Amino acid sequence: MLMDRYSLLQKIGIYAAIAVFLTFILLPFVEMFRTSLSPMSHLFHEPYELWSDRFSFEAYSTMWVKVPLLGRYIWNSIFIATVVTTLTMLFVIPAAYAYARLDFPLKALTMGTFLSVNMFTGAVLLIPLYRVMMALHLLNTYWAMIIPGVAFLIPTGVWLLSGYLEKIPRELEEAAYVDGASRLYTLRRVVLPLAVPGLIVVGVSVFIGAYAQQYLFAVTFNQVRELQPLPAGLNQFIGKQSVEWNQMMAAALTGVLPVMIVFFFLQKYLVAGLTAGAVKE
């Protein structure tokens, strides 16, 4: 009886903690959605109203008129994040495999160096990055936002994927070697098919990171309006006298839809990848 009561209290505590966590995560999106539905005259209404009969979806139509290039900005964000993710994974996969399977000098030190890169935000390195982009004549191009994004996301990707690859039994690769397969062939035909859940987890993490870090690189390395991603394009809702908050929130919610769609379709694989190796046999 005592154990049943303890188990019930434990479940209540877990669900209460999950509810608090989800509240903090989802509350900003709820407020963004509420703001997008509110007319400008109602945004700072007192007392605060969670819902009102004055709410409408007008901002979702007028935002395209206020910022004619909004569709281009959303496309730029998706394009930049996709290219960054693709290039990052091309570097991450062989590097992670090397750290998971090969023994070489300074292996632990170099991995620690990789991870220490994440201690520095992009803002700290903006000036040297700007000089590099200027020397390579890449300013005001897509590459000025893609290359720094790839550089900052590779370390985390290598760390995540190498930990997953280490859980794949070495015996499978050794059997392929016995049959005369090369290491590259074994990586493509044996290891990567087994690592699909881990690849999806790392790929989605990289895509979300690439989508989130665009603003800093865009406003620093790019002055061409047609090449701006959505985070930088949202600045156009800020006028000299006022800020179109409802339209800005509507545009921001529309811009995060691609990330939400990716997560929705891949959530089954994400769960499989995140829980892989959680139980040892």
Condensed summary:
With 281 residues, the chain is mainly alpha-helical. It is 72% helix and 0% strand.
Question: What's the topology here?
Answer:
Layout: H1 2-37, H2 58-66, H3 70-101, H4 107-117, H5 126-135, H6 143-165, H7 170-178, H8 183-194, H9 196-212, H10 214-221, H11 230-233, H12 245-275
Helix pairs in contact: 1-12, 2-12, 3-6, 3-9, 3-12, 4-6, 6-9, 6-10, 7-8, 9-12
Mean residue pLDDT? 84
Taking the alpha carbons of the first and last residues, their distance comes to: 32 Å
Largest pleated sheet: none
Gyration radius, in Å = 23 Å
CATH architecture of the largest domain: Orthogonal Bundle
CATH homologous superfamily name of the largest domain?
A: MetI-like
Tell me the CATH topology of the largest domain: MetI-like fold
Q: Determine the number of helices (DSSP H or I, runs of at least 4 residues).
A: 12
What's the CATH class of the largest domain, please?
Answer: Mainly Alpha
What is the count of β-strands?
0
Oligomeric description of these chains: single chain
Shape: globular
- The share of residues in helices is over 70%
Describe it for me?
α6 runs antiparallel to α9. The protein has helices at residues 2-37, 58-66, 70-101, 107-117, 126-135, 143-165, 170-178, 183-194, 196-212, 214-221, 230-233, 245-275. With 281 residues, it is mainly alpha-helical. The longest helix is centred in the first third of the chain and has 36 residues, at 2-37. The protein folds into two domains: 1-56; 69-275, Orthogonal Bundle (MetI-like fold). The protein contains twelve helices and no strands. Helices cover 72% and strands 0% of the residues. Mean pLDDT is 84; it is low at 277-281.
